């Protein structure tokens, strides 16, 4: 079901290319604050509804981070294939939605898309600013200002860095020391792996990691060198060579931890596992990892939840930095400042009002958007 309200959606676009069997969607939810910003997700079961839900999340995410972007999202039905076919899918999709870029939509990476796919996208549109998350060696020079702009790929870890910053703020607010805090991470791609890296640097102890291959669990944590080997070689987590138990995926949710970080796919926390969760804090590294009714239920049980569009805004903040031509150092500093500010504001207001942090964050984001709308 697609919600239609005072915010949007402004455009729902369906794309089809019969020559290659491409089917895709673009939802531009709201452009009051600026062009709709959101990545391209490529999964076999992507739906128009999921793309809308993700686009609305981006609307709130950009508003709460005080970025001059609106919310949007794109999805391509991708059942798999070689790189040649994938490039054809990306570039066909790019050409068909080119009329919206970059004035109304700016693409970016998401599930199954990264810097390579963003390079393909801008090659197809012929517009450098039609996507962010491009390779760092892909640059252009703005003739009018003689300023060189280069890509900032999400593969350098801006989202995971932001999730770690949000986690630290949540711990501080609850009076929980991040050093020694027990953490479990579901999903060990770009977001989960960098979250592991930065939380480990803060002194947190990650004791459980899950990906589609299974779960590794160690009460004493993991050897960082061996985990880095998995990350660098893109191995499954069950290939971990250190001392750890190998568990089934369904066992992950019942592991007692201080902090649970869902960093995998949509609705990964659901009716089948919600009652197993034993955590003080949930930090949503993934977009919409659970439906709102389940989130409300967990909040009422006393679990403090940092919503996705607060915790994982590092990616879109990085996109803004790329759009403006900032350096990597300036980008990371901006992510830290904005994520900390938004997390602290939302969680303190939540505890003050005893209200679900998502509701608090949505109200704050809506206020910004509607205030700007009235001025136009």
In a few lines, what is going on in this structure?
This protein is α/β, with parallel strands linked by helices. Helix content is 40%, strand content 18%.
Give the SSE map.
Layout: E1 11-17, E2 22-30, E3 36-37, E4 40-43, H1 48-64, E5 70-77, H2 83-97, E6 105-106, H3 115-125, E7 139-142, E8 147-150, H4 158-174, E9 182-186, H5 190-202, E10 205-211, E11 214-217, H6 224-233, E12 245-247, E13 259-262, E14 281-283, H7 292-300, E15 304-306, H8 308-311, H9 314-324, H10 328-353, H11 357-375
Parallel strand pairs: 3-5, 3-6, 4-5, 9-10, 9-13, 13-14, 14-15
Antiparallel strand pairs: 1-2, 2-5, 7-8, 10-11, 11-12
Helix pairs in contact: 1-11, 2-3, 4-5, 4-9, 4-10, 9-10, 10-11
What does this structure look like?
By secondary structure, the protein is of the alpha/beta class. Helices cover 40% and strands 18% of the residues. The chain folds into 2 domains: 11-154, Leucine Dehydrogenase, chain A, domain 1 (Rossmann fold, 3-Layer(aba) Sandwich), CATH 3.40.50; 158-314 and 343-362, Rossmann fold (3-Layer(aba) Sandwich). The chain contains 11 helices and 15 strands. The strands form 3 sheets. A 7-stranded mixed sheet has the order 12-11-10-9-13-14-15, sandwiched between helices. Strand 7 (139-142) and strand 8 form a beta hairpin. The longest helix has 26 residues, at 328-353.
